[in-house]
Fold this protein.
Amino acid sequence: MSASPRRALRWLAVPAALAAASLTLASCAGGSSSGSTDGGDQELTVLLISSHEGASKLLAERYEEETGVKINPVIVPYDEIGNTLALDQQSGANTIDVAAPWYVSLGDLADAGAIQDLTDWIAEDPAIEEDDFISSIYDPYSLVDGKRYGLPFDGDTHVLFYNKEILERNGFTAPPATWDEYVEQSRVITENESADGVYGNVIFGQKSPLILGASFANRLAGFGGEFVDADGAPVINSPEAVAAAQSLADSLASAYPTPAETAFGEGNSAWYAGNAAFIENWTDLGVGSQTNPDSTVKDKWGVTLLPVGGDNTQPRASLVAGFTWVIAENTEKTELARDFIEWAASSEINEELIVADPQTGIDPNRISSLESEAYGTAYPDLQRVNRATLDGALAWPTGKNATAAAEVLTDELAKLVAGEVTAQEALDATQEEWEELLG
């Protein structure tokens, strides 16, 4: 058997740990009642990742105030949400009503019969205001094979944050505009300051599509590459992609220790402590840099677009994560779930989430919230760099087997980070498996 089918089956497997999780979900969900938007004793069980726990508290409180409907959040690690939702629906537990999974998993969740097709409802409900969603986010976050399965929740893109004081100490008057400049500035800073615990960059290198995969995707966007071509065929070993992978490898020597074990928790801690000059991160890190009680970089940070590389001169946003409101296939509360996700995906709520203190981890997904006075006044630099999403952004594949494809890429990139393969070898192996998975 080839590796590709094994990976696809692994994503939809029902391991003992997740079976136990389904029992926990059942206990959290409480009693079931028919869908209604009348409030009162109505409840919804909403599945979210741990990074969105702060947002879940705000949403639950605000929605109950407005409607009387109680929201019961169920929080799981970011790399378990897709499997948890699929298991809940396939096992017959059916405890989940609404979820916000990684947008890349939409095709697999639809194929597994875990989420509802919302095409007709979205098209027929003008209150959703489809035209207000940032177009480069809306389709990747909701559309699979011509059908819409959800509404955007968290418009996750990465930008480049830099520590002004560290750059100044090392003689740099501006952040890097190219990935080559990034590698060189990082090298100089690490050489000068690593003895004092300060490094040129933080590389998210932990083996996860949302972590290591994101670091590669940032460079793929910068070098002008794509995951797939206009027809959906994989082009992951293109010259641009190989150059992006090599640039990632070239950054490791200057990175905060140890990149292979660094995810956003470790990386953010290093950044807040003032131990890194550069970090590629979600735009809400700027909110945290100002408001997080552990931050030592308040008013000392800057932010810019991701660098470019090779022949490409046009900066491009990378949709490295991103999460979408979906409705569980077997919920008995479809109408209530629709009311909730329409509200939670609205411009008003998105605007509230992106400026909230404490931070919620949510980034803009609508034009109106991105351009709102509240966001522009509080975080003008974040507003400026987030506008890159208005001109197009690099999105991951989202169809059937997209989740397995992301795992394949991450496995090969982990070998690159470990020094076991070259950039060309890693991406040639990925291309071979992607051709089986994605066609």
